[in-house]
Write a structure and sequence with these properties.
alpha+beta, Aminoglycoside 3'-phosphotransferase, Chain: A, domain 2, five-stranded antiparallel beta sheet, two-stranded antiparallel ribbon
Amino acid sequence: MLRQWLERDLGFRRYGIAPASADASFRRYFRVTRAGHTSLIVMDAPPGKEDVGPYLRVAAMLQDIGVHAPRILERSERDGFLLLTDLGTTMYLTELTKPGGADALYADALAALVRIQSRGAQAAAELPPYDEKLLRFEMSLFPDWLLQRHLSMELSTREAQVLQAGMDALVANALGQPQVFVHRDYHSRNLMVCPAANPGIIDFQDAVRGGLTYDLVSLLRDSYISWPQERVVAWALDFRRLAVAAGLPAGRDDAQFLRWFDLMGVQRHLKVGGIFARLFHRDGKPGYLADIPRTLQYAVNSCARHADFGELGDLIGTRVLPAVIARLEGNVR
């Protein structure tokens, strides 16, 4: 079907096509090459499993805001096909692992994020809200998929109370922050290194209107690469200074902002731990299991910085994280 669309509907001849990337959904991406032409990307989003409508809407929003996202060149919404500009093959993750480049790459990513939030207020108003229902559903993936399905772990009555109280407080933290345009997966695998207008931003179709620090914590407490706490704090406060200069309400002081940042991170880390377990058990994708310990360690460290989250951090750090590591080592052997 995809080749038929390219050839019959778009008139492509003598072209090459190869997998470009796959993500955690049913979407697939292919790179199309033709002699004398720049390469292009084709998205294949199977109808009934993936809706291209949100991608089209958010892509248009990001273009209007003025950040670097793929442009839609052709579309067949009936078939779930989109022809896109190609942002290249170099992910942030690849370059961040090289010595000396992180500060410049993060500076670009932070500036783009401030641009999205400060210029995207009208767009944010049109996005679905990152409301209590969605926040709680996301965190439910942690007990449902990670604890019960992956670890076969039953919590005691007290442990269940600690987890529930922690989730209640995390919801309040998220909803208490200024609500802005949230990409929702703004991290090193969804940012492309581009020679001009860096970074290139992809995988934005799940954007919502939500808490100010959500995308920041996705970027700086990334499930795929970690940094010393002092560097993370320095980058986070760089963002706050840029945000305040752009007129964003980024907390009354650094302390409030960093608390928002830490606790928003805990919400995301619980969600991501559950998602990675679900990808393994439901979708047959084991490649994310090795990233769960890093993700949960972030949550443990963040909870330890806030006395009212000490019990939740202890639960994750002493009960859940060791079980995850033991299970992972058992899978490897």
